[in-house]
Every structure is written in structure tokens, then in C-alpha cells.
Design a protein that fits this description.
Elements lengths: L4 H8 L1 E4 L5 E4 L2 E4 L5 H10 L9 E3 L17 H17 L2 E2 L10 H7 L8 E4 L13 E4 L2 H10 L1 E4 L3 E8 L8 H12 L7 E6 L1 H4 L3 H9 L8 E3 L4 H7 L9 H10 L12 E6 L6 E3 L7 E3 L15 H11 L14 E4 L1 H4 L2 H11 L9 E4 L4 H9 L2 H8 L24 E4 L14 E4 L2 H10 L12
Parallel strand pairs: 3-4, 3-6, 4-5, 6-7, 9-10, 9-12, 10-11, 15-16, 15-17, 17-18
Antiparallel strand pairs: 1-2, 2-8, 13-14
Helix pairs in contact: 2-5, 6-8, 13-15, 13-16
Amino acid sequence: MAKTLFDKIWDAHVVTEVSDGPTQLYIDRQFAHEVTSPQAFNGLRERGLSVLHPEKTIATPDHNIPTWDQDKPIADPISKFQVETLTKNCEEFGITLYELGNNKNGIVHVVGPENGYTLPGMTIVCGDSHTSTHGAFGTIAFGIGTSEVEMVLASQCILQPRPKRMLISIDGELDKGVAAKDIILYIISKLSTGGATGYFVEFAGSAITSLSMEARMTLCNMSIEMGARGGLIAPDQTTFDYIEGREFAPKGADWDKALDYWNTLKTDDDAEFDKAHYFKASDIEPMITYGTNPGMGVGITGSIPTLADIDEAGQASFKQSMQYMGFEPGDQMIGKKIDYVFVGSCTNGRIEDLRTFCNFIKGKKKADDVVAWIVPGSRQVEKQATEEGLIQIMKEAGFVMRQPGCSACLAMNDDKVPAGKYSVSTSNRNFEGRQGPGARTLLSSVLTAAAAAVTGVVTDPRTMLNK
């Protein structure tokens, strides 16, 4: 029987199936951080349980850590308590921890791939919704709740209903200045934030296979923003080249054996999906959001919809969004004044993103009235940026790179955008208050954020690429 990539991985991990109920699924890898794990460890203590396979869980603080003075004691009492609690829990239960200051510390979804922990064919979970990032490697990766974190720690299994399967195919060549972030914002604008609810999405097509691994991670990272349980891409030579040689990737004969298996991880030609969508790469331009969910996006040269463009059921939330954002229906996005720029997060905080940013700003200057937070996704990214001279390029252009962490993506630490201020952000969500109480977030690619940082307004980056 022909199978999709999702079917092949899922079926290989089924332990038991409950009639008219969830599947007991074996989990190959769990990632943990300081915010969603404490209650899970407490649950184990209360039940007198140990962690079944501590070597299969990797932990790192990232959500609520400072991005300044990481060599000093954490000043914020909540952050300090969360980080210290994670350290104690990992010591007690024998789990590998990359603590603050460790050369492998960073955002969990950056740390996993760059160290070779994320491998094709795996099932991967974490108490974080953007675990879907790891799907870029051909894995079934999804976020879970705290009680499920405890379940996996105790049994290395999880109970999950089997999602339906969706194909999203994009063929053709992307225009200059269009990035993976623009692809996913475009898709969400077409399907809505609920358009893939109940599905696991496979991204395919020539525009997808042409992407780098870091770009694929950006794409899969935001698959959940259209309601999907996760997203994945079939592994190929690009995938294998990225993984080979990384510290915890297979070596020698184990590498050859792994490659043999990984090459089978593709959807069979006659496999069927429950739903399919097809798009043309040539239809996608740099995207920018104007509202308060990731589906409220428009091409950079476009305008905010008018009330007549919105169906009756969505008009109330549209009006509320416009009021919050301080925009008017029909407004052009180009030229909108901005106050902050954030480049970072598990969506766009990798070395490729910092290279893109620096290539754009080189020889230019940051706008005087823009506050820019450039935050690497890990200590390894920070180290690479230093070695490649990217920090010097930033300095010459008036930018300063902060230290690794989730930072202003969700503003759990001090990196908060003030109320009423506009932030062009490379992160994944633009909900009300996401980047700070009253903050107004415009999601974009790294290139579009770089253009805004230099001009002080929403700008089509393509108009500056040749200058």
C-alpha cells in the first residue's frame, strides 16, 4: 500500500492502537526548557517515578533568560527561579542540560539541529508549540502540554490521535528578495490560521526543495500558525549534507546505515493525501502582517483589506485588530513608520539569518529613531557570527548583537516592545501583547526587517538590494 512520508514515520513508531481512540506513539527525542517542564518533573516525584530514558531528553533554558550579562547572576527573580529549577531537575533525573553560558546553550529548536540531535525519521516532542521546526529534517515533530511532557519522561511514549494528511506544494522559482518566511506567511494568508487544523502538512515542490536547511526550518516552524499539528519536508541531499559531521550525528558505518534508511523517507508516487493545495512561487512577494494573527498578512506592495473584503463572520475581529494596530482598512503598508526591529527567535535566529541581515546592512546605517534587537539563536550562532566578522559589520552600521535566547519573540524577559510602538519582527506570532503589553507587531522576513531598520519605515527590500 502506498504511503505518505508522514504515514511511514508514524507507522514505524506505533506501540499500540486504541480502537476509536488515540495511538500510543514511541518518541525518539524530547527537548525541554525552563518554562513548561517544572510541573512535569514534580509529577514524577509525586508518583515516585524516574525518567525511563534520560539520554533521549535534552534540556536548555531559553524562553526567559536575559540577553545581556549572561555571565552574571540573573537579576529577574522569576527567570532565576525557573533556570535554577531546570538545573536541579536535570541533575536529579540525569538529563543532559546545556545551562546558561554553556557553549551549546540557546533556543531549543536551534540547539537540536545544529548539534545533530535532530535526525530524519524521528518522532520529536517538546513543551513548546514551535517544535514543528524539526519537521524540516523529515521528522514528525510537534509541541505538547506539560502533562504530556511528564508522560514522555516516564514512558518515552505519548497518546496522540492520528492527524489527517495535507500536501502543500509550491513550484517554480522564487523572485529575488523572497525568502522562506515570505512563503509561509503567504500560505497562511491564503489558508487562514485555521486552514490546516487537524492535519500534518508535507511541504513539497521545486520551490521547497531549492531551500537551504535553515530556510526549511523557518517554513516548518510556522506550520502550526495555520492550525496544523506540524509540518515536514522529505529529507534529501541538502538534509544529509547539513547533518553530516555534526557532533551527535551518526558516524562511520552507522552513518551509512542511517543514510540507507533516510533515503526511503519520501512519499510514494501514488500515495494519497486527505487534502492538497498548490501554489506558484512567482505569486509570492515579500510579505508583511498588518493585524493580530499571522494570517493577517499582505504582499509588501499591497494594501490592508477593506471591510468589504472581509466576510461577515470575521468583521468584528478585523475591526478590533485595526483598532489595536492603529491602522485603517485599505492603508498601504509601505511607508508605515516603525519603532523597533527584532531579528531572532527559533524562526529566524540562525547563522544564515544573521548573514542575510549583515549582507543587506553592510555599508548602510541604522535609522536613528529605530531600536534594533539582533539576537542569535544559540551560543554556536553567536560564535560563528563573531568569527565571520558579522558583529563588526553590525557595529559599523550602528547595530549591536545581543546574547542568545528567545528574547522579544514572546517577551518573557526584559526585551519588551513598549505599548503603542511598532515592531517589525522576524519571529512567529503577532498576537496582541505578544512582544510586550500593547506592542504592535508586524511579522516579516529578515530582509524586510533589515530594510525597515535602515529606513525607519516599512520598505520593500527589493528596491534596495541592488544599491
